[in-house]
Design a protein that fits this description.
The complex is a heterodimer of chains A (527) and B (237).
Chain A (H helix, E strand, L loop, with lengths): L1 H17 L5 H35 L3 H29 L4 H5 L5 H34 L4 H33 L5 H26 L3 H12 L3 H11 L3 H31 L19 H15 L1 H7 L1 H15 L1 H13 L4 H16 L16 H6 L4 H31 L3 H28 L8 H5 L3 H23 L5 H33 L1
Helix pairs in contact in A: 1-5, 2-3, 2-5, 2-20, 3-5, 3-6, 3-9, 5-6, 5-10, 6-9, 6-10, 7-12, 9-10, 11-17, 13-14, 13-17, 15-18, 15-20, 15-21, 17-18, 18-20, 18-21, 20-21
Chain B lengths: L1 E10 L2 E11 L4 E6 L5 H8 L7 E6 L2 E2 L4 H7 E4 L11 H11 L4 H14 L15 H14 L4 E5 L7 H16 L3 E5 L3 H7 L2 E6 L2 E7 H5 L4 H11 L2
Parallel strand pairs in B: 3-8, 3-9, 6-7, 7-8
Antiparallel strand pairs in B: 1-2, 1-4, 4-5, 9-10
Classes of the chains: A mainly alpha (527), B alpha/beta (237).
Chain lengths: 527, 237
C-alpha cells in the first residue's frame, strides 16, 4: 500500500515536470533541461564557494565554510518547498479520496512527504556538489569529514521537509476561514523572500573582503551551536559533533512526523467553511467577451498565492528596484561613475542596465503555467463561442498588463537619474518592454506544447513545470546575448548591439505570435 | 436543430463512435442511452465542438460545426457530466462571465439569473465562492449558466446526477418549457425511468454504434424502456 502511494506521488512529481508528455524523446529532453538548469544554478553557487574555500581553510575557519553551506542549502530547500508542502500535504484535491480508502492517514502523509524530500534532494544537489568540489580542489579531506558531509546531505532534506511541513501547516491553519487568504499568504511569502534576499545580498556584498567577513561572522556564529557543531563535524571530522548534528537534524523530522501523523486526519477533515455571504442583487453590467476572459485570468491569478507569488516575482522585483533607485539614486550614479573610471563607456553601461532589466523580466512567468492551470475546467474555455486565440490572447494580455507597466517604473527612474541621449533613452524605453512580450510568448508556447492538466495541487502546475523552466531559462539565454556580444567583441558598438537585440526580440515575438494564433490555437482546441 | 451524420471518432485503434447518425428536431427532448463506455460522452463532446471527430458532419440549427464552430457554440449550451466550474469565482461572477461571453444584455441576465436562481433555490448562495459549493449546487449553477443565454439547443451529459428530487423536478419542467418555446434538448442518462417519462425521442448506443432510435413509443412499444435496453444489450452483446 505504501509503495503504491509512493509510486503515485513520484509519478505526479515527474508528470508535472514532464507536462504529461509520453514521448521518450520529449521526456529525455525535459530530463536534459532539468540537468542543465541544476548545473546553471550549481555554477552560480560554485563562484561563491570557490572564493571561500581556500581563504577560510587557511584562516582555520573550515567549519564556517561548511556551516555557510548547510545554512544556504537549508534555506534554499525551505524556500523551494514550503508552499509545495502547504499545497501538497494539506490542500491536495485527492486528500478526501485517499482518506476514504483503508489507508492509515500517516501513510498518506509520509508518501506526500517522501516526494517533497525527493524534490528537496534535487535542490540540494545544486549547492552540495559545488560546495564539495570547491573544498576538495583547495583543501584536504578527512574520511570522517567526507562521511559527515554525505550523512548531512542525506539528513538535511529531511529536516528542511519537516520545517516546510510545519510552516505549511501553520500557514494553512492561520489562513483557514480567512477570505483574503491569497493576500495574507502573498504578503507572508514576499516578506520571507525579502528577508532571505536582504541577508544573502548583504553576505555577497561582503564577499569581496573574505577574511574580514569570515572573522567577523565566525566570531558571532561560533556561539550558535546549530551552525558551529555540524560545520566542525565536516571540517575537522569530529565524531561527537557528527553524532550531535545528526541528532539535531533527525529529531525535528521525527517530531514533526509524529505530531502531523497523529493529527493529520483531524487537520484535513476540519471544517474549513468561512462565514456565508448572502447574495444581494445589484445592478448588472454587461461587458465584452475579451474583457470577461481577461477578468477571468486576473481572478485566477488573484485567487492563488502560489500562482501570484511564483509568477509575478519579476513585477515585485521591478517595483522594489524602482523604489530602491528612487531612494538610493546617488548610490547608482556613484557606482556608474566608478565604472566609467574603469573604462566602461556610457553606451556600455546603458546596455548593461537594459540587460539587467531583461533578466529581471524573466522572473515574470504568468503565461507559462496558464494553460496547465485550466486543468479540469478546460472544457469551459473550449466550449465557449470564442476563437481559441481569444482565450490565449487574454492570458498574454494579463502577463503584459502586469509586466510592462512594472518594467516602465525602473526605466522612468533610470531616465531621470541618468539623463541619457535620445538613442539611449529610446533603447532603455523600448527594449525591456519588447523583451517582456517575448518572455510572455515563450511561456505561452511552451505551456501549449507541454501542458499538465492533471495536477492534484495548483503548485505542481505553477512550480514543477517544464514550461516555466523553459520560459525562465529561455529568457536568460536570450537576455545574455547582448551582454556576451558587448563583452566578447568590444569593437561592436553597445547601442548597435542593443538595437540589434531589440530587432531580434521583435522578430522572435512576431514569429511566436504567428505560431500562437495558428498552430497554438489549434493545439488548445485539441487539448 | 441538431444533425449528426455518419459521426466517427477513433481513439488509437478503437472506434469510440462508429458511423452514428441522429437528427434532433426543434421542440424535442431527445434522450441518449447506453452502457458505460458506449460512446455517449464522446458523441456529446463532439457535438459541442470540444472534441475533434474523424469523419462525419455535425450541424447545429443548420450551421456546420466544422465550418463555423463559433456560430454553432453560440447557439448551444453544454453541461458536462461533472460540473468542474471555476472555483476561484463566486457563483454570480461565474454567471456574469458566461453572460459577457455570450453577449447577454444587463437586463436579460438580471432577469434570468433571478428566475432560474429562484427556481433552483440557488439565489441566496450566488455570492459564495464556487469552491464552497456542493456537487449539487455546482450542477445547479451549471444549469443556470446553460439557460442564461437562451440557447436554441441544450446538450447535457447526465444532468440529473447530484440533484435533489426537487431540483430534478424543476430541471424537467425547465427542459419541457425550453422545448415548448421551440428549443431542443439532447441529453444522456442512465436513469431509464426519467428518459421514459421525459423524452419525445430516444437513441440507444452500444460500442459506438446506434442500435435503436425513434419516438419513445416506437422504441419501447408495450414494454418498458428498461426491458428494451436490456434486451438490446444482450442481442448486440
Amino acid at each position: 500500500m505504501g509503495k503504491a502511494l509512493l509510486r503515485v506521488q513520484f509519478a505526479l512529481v515527474w508528470n508535472s515536470f514532464a507536462g504529461g508528455s509520453r514521448k521518450k524523446g520529449a521526456r529525455a529532453g525535459i530530463a536534459v533541461a532539468m540537468v542543465i538548469t541544476a548545473a546553471a544554478i550549481a555554477m552560480m553557487f560554485s563562484v561563491t564557494f570557490d572564493a571561500m574555500a581556500a581563504a577560510y581553510y587557511e584562516m582555520g575557519l573550515g567549519w564556517f565554510y561548511f556551516a555557510f553551506f548547510l545554512l544556504v542549502d537549508f534555506c534554499l530547500m525551505l524556500l523551494g518547498s514550503v508552499f509545495t508542502a502547504k499545497a501538497q500535504l494539506f490542500e491536495a484535491k485527492d486528500n478526501a479520496q485517499l482518506l476514504a480508502m483503508p489507508i492509515p492517514p500517516g501513510q498518506i502523509l509520509f508518501s506526500r512527504m517522501a516526494s517533497l524530500i525527493l524534490v528537496n534532494g534535487f535542490f540540494q544537489l545544486t549547492v552540495a556538489v559545488p560546495a564539495a568540489v570547491c573544498w576538495v580542489l583547495h583543501c584536504p579531506v578527512t574520511p570522517m569529514g567526507a562521511a559527515a558531509f554525505l550523512l548531512f546531505c542525506l539528513c538535511l532534506p529531511l529536516t528542511a521537509t519537516a520545517v516546510s511541513a510545519l510552516v505549511g501547516w501553520l500557514i494553512s491553519l492561520a489562513t483557514r476561514g480567512v477570505r483574503n487568504k491569497t493576500l495574507l499568504t502573498t504578503v507572508f511569502t514576499l516578506a520571507f523572500l525579502a528577508l532571505y534576499l536582504y541577508y544573502y545580498s548583504k553576505l555577497m556584498r561582503s564577499l569581496s573582503d573574505l577574511p574580514a567577513l569570515g572573522a567577523a561572522l565566525a566570531g558571532k556564529l561560533n556561539r550558535v551551536a546549530l551552525l558551529l557543531i555540524p560545520g566542525r563535524a565536516i571540517a575537522e571530522g569530529r565524531l561527537p559533533d557528527l553524532l550531535w548534528s545528526l541528532a539535531g537534524m533527525l529529531l525535528p523530522f521525527l517530531l514533526v512526523s509524529l505530531v502531523l501523523s497523529a493529527t493529520y486526519l483531524r487537520v484535513l477533515s476540519a471544517n474549513r467553511d468561512f462565514a456565508r455571504v448572502v447574495y444581494r442583487e445589484k445592478a448588472a453590467k454587461s461587458g465584452s467577451a475579451a474583457g470577461a476572459l481577461y477578468r477571468r485570468e486576473l481572478a485566477r491569478l488573484a485567487s492563488s498565492s502560489s500562482y501570484l507569488v511564483n509568477s509575478t516575482l519579476g513585477v515585485f522585483a521591478m517595483i522594489a528596484g524602482a523604489v530602491f533607485l528612487a531612494v538610493k539614486g546617488s548610490a547608482l550614479t556613484a557606482l556608474l561613475s566608478q565604472l566609467a573610471t574603469y573604462g566602461f563607456s556610457g553606451p556600455l553601461i546603458t546596455a548593461g542596465l537594459v540587460v539587467v532589466l531583461c533578466f529581471l523580466s524573466t522572473m515574470t512567468t504568468v503565461t507559462a503555467p496558464s494553460i496547465s492551470l485550466e486543468g479540469r475546467n478546460l472544457w469551459i474555455a473550449q466550449s465557449l463561442p470564442v476563437p481559441a486565440w481569444t482565450v490565449l490572447r487574454a492570458k498574454l494580455l494579463l502577463h503584459l498588463s502586469l509586466a510592462v507597466p512594472a518594467v516602465l517604473l525602473p526605466e522612468a527612474v533610470l531616465l531621470i537619474l541618468l539623463r541619457p541621449g535620445l538613442p539611449e533613452a529610446l533603447l532603455i524605453l523600448l527594449v525591456p518592454p519588447l523583451f517582456n512580450v517575448l518572455v510572455a510568448l515563450i511561456g505561452l508556447c511552451a505551456n501549449l506544447l507541454l501542458p499538465n492538466l492533471n495536477w492534484v495541487t495548483e503548485t505542481a502546475a505553477v512550480k514543477n513545470s517544464a514550461a516555466v523552466l523553459i520560459a525562465i531559462f529561455g529568457g536568460w539565454f536570450l537576455a545574455a546575448i547582448p551582454a556576451v556580444l558587448c563583452l566578447a567583441v568590444p569593437s561592436l558598438p553597445p547601442l548597435g548591439v542593443l538595437a540589434g537585440f531589440g530587432v531580434l526580440t521583435a522578430l522572435l515575438s512576431l514569429l511566436l505570435l504567428g505560431w500562437c494564433r495558428t498552430s497554438g490555437a489549434r493545439i488548445f482546441r485539441r487539448l | 436543430m441538431l444533425r449528426i451524420e455518419h459521426l466517427t471518432k477513433v481513439y488509437g485503434d478503437k472506434k469510440a463512435v462508429d458511423d452514428l447518425t441522429l437528427h434532433i428536431a426543434p421542440g424535442e427532448i431527445y434522450g441518449f442511452i447506453g452502457h458505460n463506455g458506449a460512446g455517449k460522452t464522446t458523441t456529446i463532446k463532439s457535438c459541442c465542438g470540444i472534441l475533434q471527430f474523424d469523419h462525419g458532419e455535425i450541424a447545429v440549427d443548420g450551421v456546420s460545426l466544422k465550418r463555423d464552430p463559433i456560430e454553432c457554440k453560440r447557439r448551444l449550451a453544454y453541461i458536462p457530466d461533472n460540473p468542474d466550474l471555476y472555483e476561484f469565482l463566486s457563483g454570480i461572477r461565474y454567471l456574469n462571465f458566461i453572460a459577457d461571453i455570450y453577449g447577454v444584455s444587463a437586463s436579460d441576465r438580471a432577469a434570468r439569473i433571478r428566475r432560474y436562481g429562484d427556481l433552483l433555490e440557488l439565489t441566496g448562495d450566488l455570492a459564495q465562492p464556487v469552491s464552497a459549493y456542493s456537487h449539487g449546487m455546482k450542477q445547479k449553477l451549471a444549469i443556470i449558466a446553460a439557460w442564461l443565454h437562451d440557447p436554441r439547443l441544450i446538450i447535457m451529459d447526465e444532468p440529473f446526477v447530484g440533484l435533489d428530487p426537487k431540483a430534478s423536478h424543476t430541471l424537467k419542467v425547465m427542459m419541457r418549457e425550453h422545448c415548448d418555446r421551440g428549443g431542443a434538448i439532447f441529453f444522456s442518462t442512465h436513469v431509464l425511468e426519467v428518459a421514459e417519462k421525459l423524452c419525445d425521442r430516444v437513441a440507444i448506443i452500444k460500442s459506438g454504434r446506434l442500435v435503436k432510435a425513434g419516438t419513445m413509443e416506437d422504441v419501447k412499444g408495450d414494454t418498458s424502456l428498461e426491458d428494451v435496453f436490456l434486451e438490446l444489450e444482450e442481442d448486440h452483446g
